[in-house]
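Weekly modeling sync, notes
Attendees: S.R. (lead), two postdocs, one rotation student

Agenda item 3: backlog of single-chain predictions. S.R. asked that every request posted to the team notebook include the full sequence so nobody has to chase files. The rotation student volunteered to paste the first one in as an example of the format we agreed on. Action items at the bottom.

Example entry:
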Amino acid sequence: MDILFNKGLTMLVILGAVFMFALMVMSILNRAFARYQEKYVTQSMRDLSDMFLFIDGRQLLILNISITALFVLVGLLFFGTFFTIILAACGFFVPTLMVRIFKAMRLKKFNKQLVDSLSQMSNAFKAGLTFPQAMEHIAQESESPLAQEFMLFVREIKLGKPMDEALTSIADRVGSEDLDLVVTATIISRQLGGNMAEMFDTIAATIRERFRLEGKIKALTSQGKLQGWIVAALPLVLGLVMNYMRPDLMQPMFDGWFGYILVLIILLMELAGIWMIRKIVNINV
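Predicted structure, as returned to the notebook:
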C-alpha cells in the first residue's frame, strides 16, 4: 500500500513538474512570438506600406510559416536533422529579408529617377511653374516609385498640409540621402530666398558626380566581394557535396555533439569572415 502511494505521489510530482515546464516553455514562446511580431512583422508591414504595398500582418505571418515549412521539408528530404534546423531558421526570416531587398532595389531606382527629375524641375522653374505644379508635372510624366511619392506629396499639399511638413514627410518615407539633401536645400531656399532653378541644377550635378564615383568604387571592389563570397561558400558547398556523394564518410562526424559544434563554429567563422570582407570593401562616398 505504501509502495503504491509512493509511486502515485512520484508520478504526480513528475506530471506537475512536466506541466510547469510546459507552461514555462509556452510563456517563453509566446513572448518570443510577440517580440517577433512587434520587431519584424510590424517593421516589414511599415516598409511595405511605405512602398505602397499594403499586406495584412496575418498574411505576412502565414507566408513566414509556409516558407519555413517548405525549407523544413527540403531539409528532411535531402539533408540531415542539423541542416534542417538551420534551413528552418533561415526560412523563417526569408520574407523579412526579401522585403529589405525589395526596399533597397526601390530606393536605388528612386535615386536614379531623382537625378533626372531635378533637371526637369529646374526647367519647370525657368518656365514659371510653382514648386507644387512642377512636382505634379513630373509625377505625371514619370514612373513608379518617383511618381507615387511625388503624387502623394501633391495630394498632401492640396489637402492643406504645409509644404515644409510635406517635404519632411516624403524624405522620412523614402529614406534617401539624396532626397534629404534636396528637401533640406529646398526648405532653406524657401525660407531665405534664392534661385531654385540654379540650386536644383547644382544638386543634380553633385548627385551625378557621386554616382560616377560610386560606380568606379564598385567596379574596383567587385573582385574582392566576389572572392569573399566564393571563399565563404566553398567549405559549405564542399561539405554538402561530400554528404550527398559519400554520406558514409560524413555521417560519423554527426554521431556526437562534437560534429555539430564543429559545424556551428565553422558557420560562425564564415559569417565573421563575410562581415569583415564587406566592411573592408564597403566604401561610402
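Discussion: group reviewed the output briefly. The CA atoms of residues 145 and 160 lie 23 Å apart.
Action items: rotation student to repeat for the remaining queue; S.R. to check formatting next week.
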